[in-house]
Amino acid sequence: MRSSPLEKKLIEELLPICNYVQANYRPGRYISVRWINGNQQYDAEVVQSGSFVTPNYYPANSYFEVTCIMHPNEYLARELLDTKGMAYGLEGIQRLKNGKIESQPVSYCGDEHIHIFSKLVLKQINKKAVINYPPDTTLIVDCTVNTVYAPYDWKILVSLVEEGLSAMRFREIYLYDSTGQHNHSFWPSKDT
After folding, report:
1. Counted domains in the chain
2. 79 assigned to some structural domain
3. Which pTM value belongs to this model?
4. Which residue in 11, 37, 44, 100 is deepest, having the highest Cβ count within 10 Å?
């Protein structure tokens, strides 16, 4: 449960930024991040140095914007896990008129769960893409996936998202699943 604004910022902004840095920091690419708390068009300012930092590879100065994607019923599942200790699939959870949460078992056919989640990812990325971010902004996409994803499932999700991306201003889109430790970077074609 995200009971305070500080916890919300930590979970939804700082931890995703840390994940990106941990996945990308290496000899030749040293990353310094300054998180900005406020309503500006980005979540962090980035300064990079090292041999990989060149005008055509990694910019010396850039920005991070973070977005979190989860099934709309994720908050109900967290509440149910906190109060009852268990919940079934996200598609089968609903709040009843009396305020109680009902959870019914749900099954998927093949990779249906991945197609459902990929639509949520693309919708959120496209929503972010219409905002006028500074040049060289990386969009960090924290995915709370709708069930356990094996490496093969993650590859399908990445493929569906990459196929569905249109041209946009982001320099890079970094997609990751914090629970399964999967990640992938996209370099979308530039919007002109």
Report:
1. 1
2. no
3. 0.90
4. 44
Q: pLDDT digit string (tens) for 137-167?
A: 999 999 999 888 999 999 999 999 999 998 7
Q: Is the residue at 89 inside a domain?
A: no
Helical (H) or strand (E) element with 169:
none
Q: 3-state SS of the chain: helix, strand, coil percent to 5?
A: 35, 25, 40
3-state secondary structure 9-31: HHHHHHHHHHHHHHHHCECCEEE
The reply to whether 78 falls in a domain is no
CA dihedral 177, 179, 180, 183 (to 10 degrees): 20
Whether 44 contacts 35, CB under 8 Å: yes
Q: Specify if 103 maps to a domain.
A: no
Domain range enclosing 141: 5-71+109-186
